[in-house]
Amino acid sequence: MTDEEMTCGRGIAANATLPSQMAGVVGALGAVLQDHTKALDDRNAAARREHAAYDGIIESARVARISLDALAREMLACRDLPAAPHDMDALASRETHDVFVALVRAEQQLHGLLQRRGQDHDAMLEPNR
Q1: C-alpha pair distances (Å), 92 with each of 7, 42, 82
Q2: Domain map of the chain by residue range?
């Protein structure tokens, strides 16, 4: 086996970029929300409610970021798994095809969402450039 030969372990490791990048986005979202809470006047009841809501969301974002980072590290650690025999009939099944199609569609939807958000965010940043 050459160093360039693809194995399942290398495939898993190559896919670690997805949860790693998602962790970065979720972490940045949490930071933006945390920063927003500085603008709230806790002497106001509505502001206290908003702050409490943000605190819960910020904590959930922190936990999600940590989990996604851990997932990425776990996937990277699979890089050197030895090649193993596979049931090619199982890999050629309709179910296997369908779950892969679901992944592709989910990634396409995420790509579209990120493009739209990027455009919206660029428009928000434009007055400050």
Answers
A1: 17, 59, 22
A2: 1-84, 87-129
